[in-house]
Amino acid sequence: MITLVNDSKAKFTIYADLGRSLLHMNIPAVIGIEGGGTHTRVLVCDLEGHQLAYLDNPRAASVYKDSNAVHNVRNSIAEALMIANVRPEDVRCVAAGIAGYDNPEDLAWVSELTALPGLHCPKLHMNDAVAAHAGALRARPGIVAISGTGSIILGITESREHIRNYDFHHYAFSAARFLAYDAVYEVLAGHAGASNEALVVSMLRH
Questions:
Q1: What's the CATH code of the domain at 68?
Q2: pLDDT per residue over 61-82, tens digit each?
Q3: In angstroms, rounded to a whole number, what is the distance separating the alpha carbons of residues 201 and 206?
Q4: Overall domain count for the chain
Q5: Is 31 within the bounds of a domain?
Q6: What is the pTM of this model?
Q7: Cα(36)–Cα(202) distance, rounded to whole angstroms?
Q8: Cβ neighbours of 13 (radius 10 Å)
Q9: Does residue 162 sit within a domain?
């Protein structure tokens, strides 16, 4: 905070937030998006990897989970850029991992999620499991098993081939809803113990 005093003793207070309003303006940035079946998370960084803004929106990014997915993602991007004080024109690249992007034809709706005015940079769209694999294994060959709103097992071979459990007509029943189903069934079957009292009360209230 800087305080200036003129001849009439009037005080003018200037709040100089150099970390945002001054330093972030007109600097190139990149955007990373984790678009799940429940939340949309947006990270804005400068080209050195320093975080400028992070936004966690409790709204889905997949059209299969929320008919307002396009609105959810676009608003999240716009708000994150506003927090970072970065213009869409200054974004150099967008990488978006989106739940439900399972087939090439899905790109038609996935690309709409990041179609903001002024955001004309290269955009890399992928399934959110591919983004998770890159984060966990730095895109090296390996397997990740993910259970969230949905579930998926993804392996990337040394030849860069992507193999999913879906390719074998298999689904891992380990997503959040299946854990909830199991818990309810166990309670209804009379298998709840004293330590589950708070959970049972919560279920009944719901």
A1: 3.30.420.40
A2: 999 999 999 999 999 999 999 9
A3: 9
A4: 1
A5: yes
A6: 0.74
A7: 26
A8: 8
A9: no
